[in-house]
Amino acid sequence: MTLTENLFENLRLELRRGCLTLAVLAQLRQERYGYTLRKALADDGLVIDESTLYPLLRRLEAQGLLASEWREEEKRNKRFYRLTPDGEQIFAQLLQEWHAINASIQATLNTSSNSTL
Amino acid sequence: MELLDRYLEAVRKHLPWQRQDDIVAELRANLEAQLEEKEAALGRPLTQAEAEAWLKQLGSPMLMAAPYQPQQYLIGPAIFPIYRNVMKIAITWCAIIYTIATATTLLIKTPHLADFFHALLNVPMILITTAAWVTLVFAALEYAMTHHRVKVPGLNAPAPAWSPATLPQLDPGAFPGSKPPSYAKAVAELAFGYFFLIWLLLIPKHPYLLLGPGAYYLASLPYRLAPVWVPAYWCVVALNVLQVGWYAYSLIRGRWQKPQRAAHLVLKAVGLVPIILLLTAKDHATVLLKNPALDQARLGATLNGINQSINWSVALICAIAGFQLVLGIAKLILNAYRKRAAAVV
Lengths: 117, 345
Known about the structure:
Largest sheet of chain A: 3 strands, antiparallel
Structural class of chain B: mainly alpha
Distance between the termini of chain B: 60 Å
Radius of gyration of chain B: 35 Å
Radius of gyration of chain A: 18 Å
Number of strands of chain A: 3
Shape of chain A: globular
Order of helices and strands of chain A: HEHHEEH
Number of helices of chain A: 4
CATH class of chain A: Mainly Alpha
Strand order of the largest sheet of chain A: 1-3-2
Number of domains of chain B: 3
Helix content of chain B: 55-70%
Helix content of chain A: 55-70%
Oligomer: heterodimer
CATH architecture of chain A: Orthogonal Bundle
Order of helices and strands of chain B: HHHHHHHHHEHHEH
Distance between the termini of chain A: 36 Å
Number of helices of chain B: 12
Strand order of the largest sheet of chain B: 1-2
């Protein structure tokens, strides 16, 4: 990997990190267990490694944003996660922030492209 | 599937011990679901090679387990800037104190080359020990803050209390926008230097110019200055002649507005000569008895005490002046290096 590619990869991961949390919270408005969550995210175009997603779920649960319970489904015990009321509130705030950031970046890009024309 | 069991057992070894069973159970449920889906898609169980490829894709057991460990910094980003500042201050002061203490000790006793090298070799160990203690204290602080939610005053404040008025003054002439010394100031420096030189030259014949009425009292004492003061005195005179000459040269050539760090360093270096002359006086005797045959028995002990005190004081001055010189040289080199680096960029 060249220096530029390496730099891009680091910046890409940094950019993705915050978005992953938002995407996971968005998915967990509906109850899911780890594997189906990963599949749902991948179906929406956000592929996440197992070693990233499952520990992230634990961290979000420890922070009080998610609640989990073990339940049997298809003859197998699975841990299901869903948003807590605090998680819902924080998700709404994060989503608002994300929209604001997106709008700002878009406005900056529009200004830049207008000034170059 | 045996390979998956072995994989999960290997992951378990790297997990936090309190949550091993819970995490492994969850991983197992998720991975078995994934495996089932793969096998359903193929319509057959995975072969050994396919299973190995799949597990390899998941990552090594250590890599899989690592994100489950709590994030722990030795010194976290919240206190790292403070740590770096404290480290700088501690290392600087440690170096200053050690240099002064060692130089004083070496100069008081008859110094040997071996003592000097021994003192020099001790420097890295002393600095490393200081750095280790600072790091240890901050690591303990970080641990207390993260594990016991200790609130440290100042660290959790919205912004550290500071005022722009307390910002340090700029080094005159060091920055393009700063005000250079005026012509009047340069003339005043030359005039002051000249009158100081005259005053200095008058002192041997008129000691009251230095000591006031105390000169008459000292003349009545049974002590006199040792001959080593004569060359030391003329060195001081020569230093001042050099300084006045430099001021005059700068004024004539119109260079008084330019920073003259190198010239100041040369003057500082020359200023060390009379101090070293006094330090290397024979038997460290800078004061003698006027009539040794008469007063040695009575005043010998007092004389030794006086000489020892003078020697200690001069050694301390020498250490401080030496340190200032080294610091000045280091700053000069650093500035040259910065300019060179800036030119390259």
